[in-house]
Prior knowledge:
Layout: H1 4-18, E1 25-28, E2 49-55, E3 58-63, E4 67-72, E5 77-82, E6 93-98, E7 103-108, E8 116-121, H2 123-127, H3 141-149, H4 155-160, H5 170-180, H6 193-218, E9 251-255, E10 258-262, H7 264-267, H8 276-282, H9 290-300
Antiparallel strand pairs: 1-6, 2-3, 3-4, 4-8, 5-7, 6-7, 9-10
Helix pairs in contact: 1-6, 3-6, 5-6
Amino acid sequence: MPELPEVNLYLHALGPRILGEKIRRLRIASPSLLKTFDPSPAELHGKSVETLARLGKRIVFGVEDDLFAVVHLMIAGRFQWRKPDAPIPRKRGHAAFDFSRGTLLITEAATRKRASLHLVRGEAALMEHDPGGIEPLEATAEAFAAAIRRENRTLKRALTDPRILSGIGNAHSDEILLRARLSPARLTRRLSDGEIERLRAAVRSSLTEWSARLIAEAGDDFPAKVTAFHPAMSAHGRYREPCVQCGTPIQRIVYATRETNYCPACQTGGRLLADRALSRLLRRDWPRSVEALESLTRRKEPG
């Protein structure tokens, strides 16, 4: 799912292409995408895009006459920029915003379609789509600490809760926690003031650096493959690969469709976090440390 850096990348690419341009037409191919009926898509026709903004993980097109198009790409949704009046792909295509300079497609490469488009009128209606989390790059140290400690949650859950922090998801939370050298299972109300400030610094530096990196890599081209995983990431998606900070193999815990990647040496004092499914299966045989895991792996290797 595109997170704050990926949404910033889209905003950077969309700005010079559609800001100030009139929406000639909004074509909806997939009825499941559009979640509202008033205003209608036709009300956007002939009106200019005046603003582009991020609202959590959503992208908001501010259109003339106090209209807003709120797009949530979810996990597999993507924007694609094509020539004017480009056809909407039959299997993956959801919708098309037609401009004189090109067509902005919304596609989704998933069996279960979860991307959404809300058309709303007025700032009050727009704010109903704001989950309420503070902006991590703008919050003061006091506001950040208060938000993190408001509920006693694990750090992983706190970072990814849109009611607490805006725009952070599964991938970038892994990167932030490795940089902060904090366990994803640490409870927020047990953090010291120093640890809270270390976390805040990691949030700000990681999100800022990733936003700048993605924009620099794309240059003037419209980004073709925007995901919340990047080969240069230090923790996310690097299970069993060496930690860039200490060389210890990155570990993971899996819950439902989400996984958390972490370095035991840098973040948990060498302790392995219990994966719910595997720890229940192995019970007493569940390795408690990196050394125990390596010993178990060696015993299973042939020869």
